[in-house]
Amino acid sequence: MKLLLPAALLALSLAACQKDDDALPQPEYADWYALRSPDDRAIEAVAGDIDGTLVITTRYEIYYTKDRGKTWRKSKYSNNLGLFGFYQQQDTLLTLNGGAGSALNDQIEYATSPSHYSVDQGVTWQPYRNWRRAYFEPRVPRNQVAATSGTLYSIEYLLTPISPNSTTSRVDYIGIQTSTGQHLTLPQDHQITSIAFDAKSRLYVTASAPLCGGRETFKYCDKSNGTLYVSKKPQL
């Protein structure tokens, strides 16, 4: 047993080093901060502030960071329902477990149906009792958000029929467009899932891992860990 103990400790040490080696780098861009998710799924939604505590969900898990994504910690959250968004109400953060389109046919996608709440910026979660019993409220737009100036920012995409007579189309995400005619492009191609603003009017874009090989083929450039972009300047 005494001979096996050092070997076991060495194995644990090597495993820890391997985990550090597998950490995804954070590339530097002129206009965007780019953070990678700690697991191999797209980032579905974000809440918080990159300068403080930032909270993300990869559909079934919630993670938070206090150092701009250099390290991530898994929140104390347990629920089999997938997550589509967050809703901030004063000092309370809600999870939104439902996804729905608009009944007005304005092509807005919403996150709805609160199920858990947090009062410590997403570190721990408790079941939420919706006393209003209206599970579609509150609802948060996923693909459109308004800046403080009133300018609308929307996810921009292109629909391409998969064949000449097909009613099914391929969705190619281009970037972000505004109601004033501005177009914001991301440093790489992604499947974009949601957009949001923080209190400093910086734009947050949640997405899949970077895609390579052209939009016609679905292929990740490296690992399948999702990406979060944060604009370095306020968007007004």
Overall mean pLDDT: 85
Separation, N- and C-terminal Cα atoms: 66 Å
Oligomer: single chain
CATH secondary-structure class: Mainly Beta
The helix-strand sequence is HEEEEEEEEEEEEEEEEE
Largest sheet: 5 strands, antiparallel
Secondary structure tally, helices? 1
According to CATH, what is the topology?
Answer: Neuraminidase
Q: What would you say the CATH architecture is? A: 6 Propeller
Count of structural domains: 1
Rg over CA atoms, rounded to whole Å, is: 20 Å
User: How much of the sequence is in beta strands?
Assistant: 35-45%
What low-confidence regions span 5 or more consecutive residues with pLDDT below 50?
Answer: 1-22
State the share of residues found in helices, binned by percent: under 10%
What's the total count of β strands? Answer: 17
Estimate the global geometry from the Cα principal axes.
Answer: globular
How would you sum up this structure, described in words?
The chain is mainly beta. The protein has a single domain (31-231), classed as Neuraminidase. The protein contains one helix and 17 strands. The protein has one helix spanning 4-21, and strands at 32-36, 45-48, 54-57, 62-65, 73-74, 85-89, 92-101, 109-118, 126-127, 140-141, 144-146, 152-161, 169-178, 183-184, 192-197, 203-207, 227-231. Strands 6, 7, 8, 9 and 10 form a five-stranded antiparallel beta sheet that branches. A four-stranded antiparallel beta sheet has the order 1-17-16-15, with no helix packed on it. It has a four-stranded antiparallel beta sheet with strand order 2-3-4-5, with no helix packed on it. The chain starts with a helix and ends in a 5-residue tail after the last strand. The relative contact order is 0.17. Mean pLDDT is 85; it is low at 1-22.
